[in-house]
């Protein structure tokens, strides 16, 4: 930027406190404020001095008078004259008495506000008085009949004295008198009782009550009736089009055409023009505008919830700056509170809102109010806000948008309409997530039975998220435990048992169910709602206890009890979960699919369980789709960060199974960012430890075993045994030890942990350590629960991969095969057994296992619940089978090696196999390396490849040329 250029001058003007947008208007049109012109002149004088210009008169100009406020400088001679005359008279001690008049928008309020500010800075005591509307409370009917007009006039005089207080000289009084002035419905009256206009009353009554020495400026809306001897009136007119245009061009830096359009849209109303120019004024001035007041009322309604994420207006600075900023408000909620779209607001009111980029998943625009508007909204009368809240509730309709729900509930709490609040949550149970911040007001204001029902909604919301220790949940739960109704207390005891199950304290959960007298409750005939809810939730807790103990028959009986229907979608979710753990895949899919989207949190969990099940059944792409959908739904439903992180981690595992290791690691990093390293309560480190542990295989797939060991060590450091979640901690420790063994297996093989992954032909210290770790884990009999069985199965497979001795490896695979309960698990075991049999030299047995594995994989491809394409099967396992088949064919028919490799190249063309191609070629290369004709085969297979003069082994050359053929060099 060249020094002295227009752009440089703009920047320098801004640096010195001027308005950069005004520069070109000053240069080209001589339009701008005195202050901006003086700053520009000073800059030019400095430039002249730097250039060494001589012969010019560069003597400093005489100091200018204090600059007028921009609205007065550019918007009218009359206003400037009155401003200067009154200010000068007060400063000279002359106690001036001036009168101005003008219609709305002429600039009376602006003039009074700027005079008050200037006088205050000069140390003058200033009092502003707004004589508008009704200044007097109405008399009782009996008293009013006995009063004469003279008495009414005297009463008006007393009201005026009270409003005036005792202005003492040499202070200043700035008075605004509107046309609608009246006293308890009675018009203004002279002392003899004669009714007069507001202007006449101000001239005859107001001025007479003021002591000498007090400076007075009266601003009239209508001068009709002003006494001839009370002083000359200066008429104020709205800005002309030229004045409005000049003001907007100077303040906003816009073109003439745009300034003309803005001036016409505001009706050349001075207050509205001031708003557009950023001179909104104080709260009273803002609220005097009907459009701005309506917007402020809408904001006040949205403030009723007092959410923790919103700053209260008291946090805003005295000069209109915010620390922190006012909140961002969704456009739907603001439109509902306004009763019309935000775009329908008049321009001057809309200028107090700033458009903000909408959050992800939110289609509509969001808005941030200006600090001054936010502060003004907090100062509206309570009765007026209550009326706006009633109108807002009436406009919401039966199915308000999610953005509107929290504000609707807060409005109902403010209005004390507890019955309507209960009905709203009954109609939309997910709306209970907005209730906890309102709970203290509900507890103190609602009566029974609404208070108990709303307490139940608060508890259900928090327990559904796993937030059993949240203060609102505990407070609401203890409210229910103190109920005089035994069924209410029983339900609360069931929820305490549920929290104990979540913490892994199964003995405490059993004790709480006993205190809830659940067996007695279950023997009762169907009765009142609380007893039914306690029965239903109690059965689900019993199912959870049986599930963790591995008693799937008891768990299935509990969730199948017809009384669980009271728990609605939650019961469906639990039926799906129990069926999944019991291996009844079709029933699990049916129940999980029946959880309605109208319960966003529960439907998200159902999608998570479906994704987890499909991952287990060998359909990682379908699993990733379900898990990604679950993560999206959880975020939209306001789920806790730990739950969102758990779903992201499972999605990362699905990506690893698809060979997308880099994407999987990024997914885990996002999950870890949601769960902080330090937490409040003991046992809270388990979720982060779980994420760290589950990310280890992803690092191994990237060929980073040392990083995997580091993460495993971090996880184990967090998994310290304690009173809380003992069973969970013990399981996670075993699972992490298993992943440490995986890391040593990966390092011992010198390969990324990515299929195809074959067993070793010779031993290494890392493999020996992996076997020792696994043997220690396998000495413990597997627990009866589904996850313990699955862990034991995985350890058997991994133990075979760490074993150089084929006979020992086959023993572990035989044990694994005995545990298989679905085609994918059996395919995994048979593929590994075929690989061990190949190492042992038994190609016939290996082929039989390969044939069985291919047949099983076709069943996996058929999917669950609906037919799927081949891309739905685990591509890594497909790659494993291809590699094994190529090894068998190359060993059995070496003369057909070229045909075998061509077949393999064709089989690897599927795009889902791309991440696994190098591994398959690597396995084929190992089978070729011992053959003397291998180099000739490679030349025929890759005719366009460069001459085989690279110092590469056959295995590496095969991988390199295959990749070059797949991705030709540019």
CATH superfamily label of the domain at 70-136 and 150-235: P-loop containing nucleotide triphosphate hydrolases
Per DSSP, the total helix count is 48
How many angstroms separate the termini?
A: 41 Å
The main sheet comes to: 5 strands, parallel
By DSSP, the count of extended strands is 8
Q: How much of the polypeptide forms β-strand, as a percent range?
A: under 5%
| SS content category | mainly alpha
Task: State the CATH topology of the domain at 70-136 and 150-235.
Answer: Rossmann fold
Helix content: 55-70%
The CATH level-2 architecture of the domain at 70-136 and 150-235 is identified as 3-Layer(aba) Sandwich
The parts where pLDDT drops under 50 for at least 5 residues are 58-64, 139-144, 307-311, 314-323, 867-871
Mean pLDDT over the full residue set: 84
Keywords: TPR repeat
TPR repeats: 645-678
InterPro entries: P-loop_NTPase, TPR-like_helical_dom_sf, TPR_rpt
Structure explained in plain terms:
Helices cover 60% and strands 4% of the residues. The chain has 970 residues and is mainly α. Among the domains are: 6-51, no CATH class; 70-136 and 150-235, Rossmann fold; 485-582, no CATH class; 585-676, Serine Threonine Protein Phosphatase 5, Tetratricopeptide repeat (Alpha Horseshoe); 895-965, no CATH class. The strands form two sheets. A five-stranded parallel β-sheet has the order 2-3-4-1-5, with helices on both faces. It has a three-stranded antiparallel β-sheet with strand order 6-8-7. Strand 3 (172-177), helix 9 and strand 4 form a beta-alpha-beta unit.
């Amino acid at each position: 930027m060249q020094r002295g250029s227009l752009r440089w001058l703009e920047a320098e003007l801004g640096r010195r406190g001027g308005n950069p947008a005004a520069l070109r208007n000053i240069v080209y049109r001589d339009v701008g404020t005195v202050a901006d012109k003086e700053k520009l002149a000073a800059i030019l004088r400095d430039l002249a001095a730097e250039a060494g210009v001589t012969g010019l008169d560069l003597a400093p100009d005489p100091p200018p008078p204090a600059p007028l406020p921009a609205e007065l400088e550019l918007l009218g001679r009359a206003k400037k004259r009155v401003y200067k005359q009154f200010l000068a008279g007060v400063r000279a001690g002359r106690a001036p008495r001036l009168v101005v008049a003008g219609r709305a928008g002429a600039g009376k309020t602006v003039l009074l506000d700027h005079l008050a500010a200037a006088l205050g800075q000069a140390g003058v005591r200033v009092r502003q008085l707004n004589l508008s509307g009704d200044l007097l409370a109405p008399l009782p009917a009996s008293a009013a009949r006995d009063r004469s007009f003279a008495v009414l006039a005297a009463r008006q005089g007393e009201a005026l004295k009270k409003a005036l207080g005792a202005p003492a000289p040499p202070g200043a009084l700035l008075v605004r008198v509107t046309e609608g002035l009246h006293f308890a419905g009675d018009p203004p009256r002279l002392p003899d009782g004669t009714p007069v206009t507001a202007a006449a009353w101000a001239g005859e009554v107001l001025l007479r009550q003021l002591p000498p020495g007090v400076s007075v400026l009266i601003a009239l809306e209508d001068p009709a009736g002003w006494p001839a001897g009370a002083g000359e009136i200066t008429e104020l007119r709205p800005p002309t089009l030229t004045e409005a245009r000049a003001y907007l061009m100077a303040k906003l830096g816009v073109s003439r055409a745009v300034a003309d359009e803005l001036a016409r849209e505001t009706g050349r109303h001075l207050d509205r023009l001031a708003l557009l120019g950023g001179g909104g004024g104080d709260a009273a001035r803002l609220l005097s505008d009907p459009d701005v007041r309506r917007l402020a009322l809408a904001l006040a309604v949205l403030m009723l919830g007092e959410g923790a994420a919103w700053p209260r207006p008291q946090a805003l600075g005295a000069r209109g700056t915010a620390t922190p900023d006012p909140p961002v408000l969704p456009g739907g909620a603001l439109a509902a509170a306004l009763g019309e779209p935000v775009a329908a607001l008049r321009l001057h009111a809309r200028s107090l809102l700033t458009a903000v980029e909408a959050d992800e998943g939110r289609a509509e625009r969001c808005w941030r109010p200006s600090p001054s508007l936010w502060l003004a909204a907090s100062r509206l009368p309570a009765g007026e806000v209550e009326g706006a809240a009633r109108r807002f509730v009436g406009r919401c309709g039966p199915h308000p948008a999610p953005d509107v729900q929290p504000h609707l509930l807060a409005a109902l709490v403010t209005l004390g309409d507890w019955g309507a609040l209960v009905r709203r949550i009954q109609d939309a149970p997910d709306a209970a997530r907005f209730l906890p911040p309102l709970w203290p007001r509900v507890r103190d204001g609602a009566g029974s039975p609404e208070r108990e029902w709303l307490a139940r909604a608060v508890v259900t919301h928090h327990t559904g998220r796993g937030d059993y220790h949240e203060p609102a949940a505990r407070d609401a739960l203890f409210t229910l435990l103190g109920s005089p109704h035994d069924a209410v207390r029983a339900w609360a005891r069931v929820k305490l048992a549920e929290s104990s199950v979540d913490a892994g304290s199964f003995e405490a959960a059993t004790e709480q169910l006993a205190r809830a007298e659940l067996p007695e409750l279950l023997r009762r005939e169907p009765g009142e709602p609380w007893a039914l809810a306690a029965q239903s939730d109690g059965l689900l807790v019993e199912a959870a206890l049986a599930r963790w103990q591995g008693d799937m028959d008891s768990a299935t009986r509990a969730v199948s009890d017809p009384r669980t229907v009271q728990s609605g979608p939650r019961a469906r979710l639990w039926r799906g979960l129990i069926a999944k753990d019991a291996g009844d895949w079709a029933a699990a899919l049916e129940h999980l699919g029946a959880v309605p989207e109208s319960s966003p949190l529960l439907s998200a969990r159902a999608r998570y369980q479906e994704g987890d099940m499909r991952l287990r059944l060998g359909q990682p792409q379908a699993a990733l789709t379900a898990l990604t959908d679950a993560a999206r739904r959880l975020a939209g439903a306001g789920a806790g960060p730990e739950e969102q992180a758990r779903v992201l981690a499972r999605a990362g595992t699905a990506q690893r199974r698809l060979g997308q290791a880099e994407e999987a690691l990024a997914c885990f990093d996002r999950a870890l960012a949601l769960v902080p390293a330090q937490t409040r309560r003991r046992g809270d480190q388990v979720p982060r430890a779980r994420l760290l542990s589950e990310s280890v295989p992803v690092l191994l797939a990237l060929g980073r075993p040392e990083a995997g060991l580091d993460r495993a060590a971090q996880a184990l450091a967090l998994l310290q045994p304690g009173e809380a979640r003992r069973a969970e901690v013990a399981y996670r420790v075993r699972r992490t030890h298993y992943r440490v063994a995986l890391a040593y297996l990966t390092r011992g093989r010198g390969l990324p942990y990515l299929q195809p992954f074959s067993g070793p032909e010779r031993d290494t210290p890392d493999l020996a350590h992996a076997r020792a770790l696994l043997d220690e884990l396998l000495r413990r009999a597997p627990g009866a629960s589904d996850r313990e069985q699955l862990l034991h199965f995985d350890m058997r497979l991994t133990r075979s991969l760490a074993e150089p001795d084929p006979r020992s490896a086959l023993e572990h695979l035989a044990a694994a095969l005995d545990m298989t309960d679905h085609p994918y698990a059996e395919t995994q075991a048979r593929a590994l057994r075929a690989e061990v049999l190949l190492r042992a030299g038994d190609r016939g047995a290996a082929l039989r296992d390969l044939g069985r594995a291919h047949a099983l994989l076709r069943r996996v491809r058929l999917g669950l619940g609906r037919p799927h394409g081949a891309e739905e099967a685990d591509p890594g396992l497909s790659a494993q089978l291809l590699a094994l088949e190529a090894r068998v064919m190359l060993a059995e028919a070496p003369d057909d090696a070229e045909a075998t490799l061509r077949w393999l190249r064709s089989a690897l063309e599927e795009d889902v196999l791309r991440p696994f191609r190098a591994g398959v070629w690597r396995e084929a290369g190992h089978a070729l390396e011992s053959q003397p004709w291998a180099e000739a085969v490679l030349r025929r297979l890759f005719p366009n490849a460069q001459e085989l003069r690279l110092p590469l082994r056959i295995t590496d050359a095969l991988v390199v040329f295959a990749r070059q053929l797949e991705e030709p060099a540019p």
